């Protein structure tokens, strides 16, 4: 008799065997996923913010940096 689900069921069984049999491995998997996910979201949001604010950031305005140098002289 064949298993219901085919390849998807065998993948889930393999994931269960590797990740969820021991509590310590499962917790390490969750924490690692959370840390990696946080980095990916942070990087993505920074890139979106930079694209939406090109020319409006302090680094992009050349006049602001040159005024401070001219006043010191």
Which helices and strands appear, and what pairs or packs with what?
Blueprint: H1 7-20, H2 23-52, H3 62-72
Mean pLDDT: 82
Rg of Cα set: 25 Å
Q: Given the C-alpha coordinates, what overall shape results?
A: elongated
Return the CATH class.
Mainly Alpha
Helix proportion? over 70%
- Number of continuous helical runs: 3
Please provide the count of β strands.
0
Unreliable segments (pLDDT under 50, ≥5 consecutive)? none
Q: If you consult CATH, what is the topology?
A: Single alpha-helices involved in coiled-coils or other helix-helix interfaces
* C-alpha end-to-end distance: 88 Å
- Count of discrete domains: 1
Main pleated sheet = none
By CATH, the architecture is named: Up-down Bundle
In sequence order, what are the helices and strands, one letter per element?
HHH
* Percentage beta strand: under 5%
Please identify the oligomeric state: single chain
- Structural class of the secondary elements? mainly alpha
Task: Characterize this entry briefly.
The protein is an all-alpha fold and 73 residues long.
Molecular structure report:
- With 73 residues, this protein is mainly α.
- It has a single domain (7-72), classed as Single alpha-helices involved in coiled-coils or other helix-helix interfaces.
- Helix content is 75%, strand content 0%.
- The longest helix has 30 residues, at 23-52.
- It is elongated and about 65 Å long.
Summary keywords:
Single alpha-helices involved in coiled-coils or other helix-helix interfaces, 75% helix
């Amino acid at each position: 008799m064949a298993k219901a689900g085919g390849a998807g069921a065998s993948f889930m069984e393999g994931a269960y065997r590797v990740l969820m049999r021991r509590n310590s491995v499962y917790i390490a998997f969750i924490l690692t996923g959370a840390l990696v996910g946080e980095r990916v979201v942070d990087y993505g949001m920074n890139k979106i913010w930079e694209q939406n604010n090109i020319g409006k950031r302090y680094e992009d305005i050349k006049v602001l940096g040159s005024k401070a140098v001219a006043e010191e002289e």
